[in-house]
Amino acid sequence: MRTMRQGSTTPGQRGERDKRDGRALVRAGQRLILVCGAVLALLLSACGQTGPGVAADRLVALGAPDASAQAHGISLLAANQASAQQARERQTLMAAANWYIAHMSLDEQIGQMFLDEMDGQDFTPEMAYMIGQQHVGGIILFPLGVNFGTYNQQVTLDQQIQAHAKIPLFTAADSEGGGLSLGLSEYFGSFPAPGDLGTSGDPRLAYQWGVTTAHDMRQVGINTNFAPVVDVSVNGAESWGSGRTFSSDPRQVALLAGAFMRGQQDAGEISTLKHFPGLGSTVLDPHKTLPVINRSWDQLWSTELYPYRTLVASTPPDLIMSTDELVPVVDPTLPAEVSPAWINGILRQKIGYDGVVITDALWMDGLSQWTRTRGFFDPGPAVVMSVEAGDDLMIAAYNADSSALAIAGLKNAVLSGRISRARIEQSVRRILMVKIKYHLLPMPPTVQAQQPLTALSA
What pTM, to 2 d.p., does this model score? Predict the structure, then answer.
């Protein structure tokens, strides 16, 4: 019989020691990643790679950029484990959303499907009514002088918005970078434009600016960014909004916009890809008219749609924004954001996206001129068409009166049987899953006890 030497360990003791050593290695690795992230930010600062007039020391390092992780590779086993974890968490989010839906009235469910504009820099009784009585799911904030006031005013405004909500709201803004950074540049300094990041060609830099943008937005209470833009600048400088695009190369757009998006998501900010199916081949402004995109299906699939199908397959975005444009090769009759062929057909079925689809502003002239020629003079019909197309969240109202018309249009379609309760619940489920994922809405205790959700970055 073998005897134990003095100080030797049993197999059980060795197992415990190995576990402790393993945990220590994990902690050491995590510390190394954080240090690498910080060093990267300092190196970028020293090299001056942050774009013209942009302060590199504002970059927030929350960990190793996505590109660094990719450089080391991921084993097949690890990838399978990650996929299984994502599937479990999706089931948890779905169960939690279903719990909330079961405790909501039809009016509360319909309200969640609207993200409304607000007027002015102060919280008003009208805003309190839209949030408290019309149950809107979100508020969109516009540039300095419209909604954004001083830093303290903005923080207070967002606190008041959430204080009046039974279900926490999406507070959203278009902070794309460059000239479209809203009031944030007044508070924190300038941000590089997407074109600057595109010129750099560096996904690590795009990731870090995604982190920094998210960090700054969250400081003032804005939890949702309508960015990044993934339009591919087909016509170069002649494209509409060319200064807002990363590149004329769809692969570079997917690489850099994807890195920016992941930076935002890792820092806890809800992100949006836009403008589906793509505005990079037109010189026309959809705020003023309806662009007609005369591109072949092969051109669209390989160029405009490339960033969407690539990113949906790799790191699904939280929201995708559809927009005002007519693309005859897919639907010669309906603008894309109200087209079932585009939303349910291409985006959901062919590309495989099952997240939240949000419309562009339905009052923009690109769509509103089109609806008026068909005798629609309030937002109700456009809202109903959007839901029938497959959209979940509508930017349809700019005051309590227009909000009432939009909500009434959708509710009447439900009561008449044109749109089913199940279809409403489908959209509300998607919306609530995002709010729960980003901890805007707490996990119901019964669901949390069964399947705890991995926390996102705070």
Answer: 0.82
